[in-house]
Every structure is written in C-alpha cells, then in structure tokens.
Design brief:
- This protein is α/β, with parallel strands linked by helices.
- Helix content is 29%, strand content 25%.
- α4 links the parallel β8 and β9.
Length: 277
C-alpha cells in the first residue's frame, strides 16, 4: 500500500494518449478530417437519395454518437482519479487509479436550428452521462441562410435564440451536419465571443465540410477547432483532386452555383424535418 492508503499505481495508467485517425491535409492544425471507414460508410448511406425518415435519424444518431466519442477523447481535459471498485471488498488492490475525463469542465452544445437540432440533442444527452449535468447545457439559435435572386448564399440571419448563460471557461460544441459556406457558423461563434465570456474551446462538429467553408471560418475565427467526417471538393479540376487537400486551397471547389455541397448530401435539414422549404 502507498503512503496515502492506496495500492501501488500501475504505470500503464500514468497517461492515456489518444491517437486520432485523420486524413492528411494542408488546412492547419485546427482542422481534423477523420479517417474512419465506419463513419464514411454511414455518411454515404446518409447522403443516398433513398434515405428518408425514419432511417435518417438513425444514421445521424450513429454518426454523432461516434464523433462525440472522438472529440471528447481528443479535446476534453482529463484528471487523475482513484476509484474504489466492487473488488475492493475482497482485495486492497481493488482500485482503478488512472485518468478520467474531467467532469467539472463546463460544456455547451449549441443547436443551430434546423439541421443541427438532432445532432445537438444527441451530444447534449450523451454529455450528461459523464460530465457534470449542472455544468452541461444546450443552447438554441434559430439561424438560416440569406440568399440573393440567384439562390446564392449572401450570409446568415438569426431570427431568435435562447442562450442559457455564460460560456466562460466552457467547451462550446457546434454539432451541425453541413459546413458549406461558413456564414452560419461564423455568426454563431461571433455571438458567443461578443456577449458570453471567453470559452475554453470552440469546436465545430460536421459530417461534411468544403474548402470554401474552411477558408471562411478559419479566416474569421482561427481558434476554432473543426472536426469533419468528410471533405467534399468534387467540383475541383482533376489536377486538384489528385493533390493533398489544402495544397491548392484557392483552386479547390466544393460548392455549386447555389452554394450546395458536391458530392454532399443535398440538404439534411429538409429531410430531417420533412420540410422542404
């Protein structure tokens, strides 16, 4: 037994290094394009023209449950713990001594209605199981694209919001499926930075992002951390498609003339809500 009454600590638990599997790119250290066949398979099914309700909700649940695991492992602080297990009744060595996620860190999951409603709820519900529920909340922002006569995105407009307090010292998550132009995400991050304290981290969690999105959001918020299951730049020339993503960033193209993603998913918000407006 140690001087503190605990058994000698197993050295294998001195640290818990998580190894992120991600694609090679040139977008900078804050961008993580996941290399994950399980998630790519589910996302391909999600984007299929045959996928409608209720199957789409099942796929979104699988994607965001898995992506939250990855983000928590990579981004959330840990702390050392000594947990008495049920075997401590029979053996003095019946303690787990090692790292656990620091449940005391505040966390905010932001619902960017409407496509982000289901992903945010999935993350918020899961977080309450291992983070302190008194420090875990879900905020709501009703925000949408603004477009011109050619149906091109000109920006975003907030029509209402319910933000439940400060984000000081918190990890703020934006689980929003499509990172297309970046206007919505930029507007949302602006709201928190201007009026709700200094967060520990801002993390965007997307199914798909475009090169255009990455340039826009990182230009406006270089501290933003971006996770995506897939990068779509399908409208780029063949030479660009043969290059490591980000090598010719200015020549990469993932948005069509109406600012929809190609290959993309064709608008998750419409299908998730059965509302095609």
């Amino acid at each position: 037994m140690s001087s503190k009454g605990l058994p000698h600590k197993d050295s294998q638990f001195s640290k818990a290094a998580y190894r992120l599997s991600e694609m090679e790119h040139r977008y900078g250290k804050n961008v993580h394009i996941l290399s994950n066949p399980f998630l790519l398979t589910h996302l391909a099914q999600l984007c299929s023209k045959e996928t409608i309700q209720p199957r789409i909700n099942e796929l979104v649940t699988a994607l965001y449950s898995s992506m939250l695991d990855i983000v928590v492992n990579q981004e959330f602080p840990t702390k050392p713990a000594a947990v008495e297990t049920r075997m401590a009744e029979f053996h003095p060595e019946g303690f787990y001594q090692g790292p656990i996620i620091d449940a005391g860190v505040p966390v905010v999951s932001v619902n960017l209605a409407r496509a982000g409603t289901v992903p945010s709820h999935i993350c918020f519900s899961a977080l309450n199981y291992f983070m302190d529920p008194h420090k875990t909340r879900q905020d709501h922002i009703s925000i949408g694209r603004t477009t011109n006569e050619q149906h091109q995105v000109t920006g975003s407009q907030v029509s209402g919001h319910k933000i439940g307090g400060s984000a000081e010292g918190a990890i703020v998550l934006f689980p929003d499926p499509m990172g297309a132009t970046g206007s919505t995400l930029c507007e949302a991050v602006d709201m928190y930075k201007k009026s709700h304290g200094k967060a520990l981290k801002y993390i965007a969690m997307h199914c798909i992002v475009t090169p255009e999105y990455l340039k826009r959001v990182l230009g406006a918020h270089p501290d933003l951390v971006v996770y995506a299951i897939r990068l779509d730049r399908g409208l780029s020339p063949a030479k660009i498609l043969d290059s490591v993503p980000g090598t010719f960033w200015d020549q990469e193209k993932g948005l069509n003339e109406k600012h929809y993603i190609v290959p993309g998913g064709g608008g998750f918000g419409e299908i998730l809500n059965n509302a095609y407006v």
